[in-house]
């Protein structure tokens, strides 16, 4: 609901159009991909990660990072994506 209020879909359309204009590939991943829950260093999946936890701390390898940075790195490196155009 919050995402729709913020016009995220509109942002997405504009981002894709801009990237297409500049020749930058846009990788679309499945919205259910557990990018926040997976440790970027070792791949461990933290199934009990709460939305209130803003820092990702891996119980397996002790990797610690901002939650969104960890997710962004997983999104960047995933091979499971479709090209936007
Ligand atoms: Zn880890």
Structure in a nutshell:
This protein has helices at residues 2-5, 8-22, 67-77; strands at 27-28, 55-57, 64-66, 82-83.
Tell me what the structure shows.
With 85 residues, the protein is of the alpha+beta class. It has one domain (2-83). Helix content is 35%, strand content 12%. It is built from 3 helices and 4 strands. The protein has helices at residues 2-5, 8-22, 67-77; strands at 27-28, 55-57, 64-66, 82-83. The strands form 2 sheets. Strands 1-4 form a two-stranded antiparallel ribbon. Strands 2-3 form a two-stranded antiparallel sheet. The chain is globular. It starts with a helix and ends with a strand. 7% of the residues are buried. The mean pLDDT is 92.
Number of helices: 3
Shape type: globular
Radius of gyration, Cα only, in angstroms? 15 Å
- Sequence of secondary-structure elements: HHEEEHE
Structure summary, number of beta strands: 4
Chemical compounds bound to the protein = zinc ion
Structural class: alpha+beta
Strand arrangement across the biggest beta sheet: 1-4
Strand content: 5-15%
CA-CA gap between termini: 27 Å
The overall number of domains is 1
Helix content: 25-40%
Largest sheet: 2 strands, antiparallel
Integer average pLDDT: 92
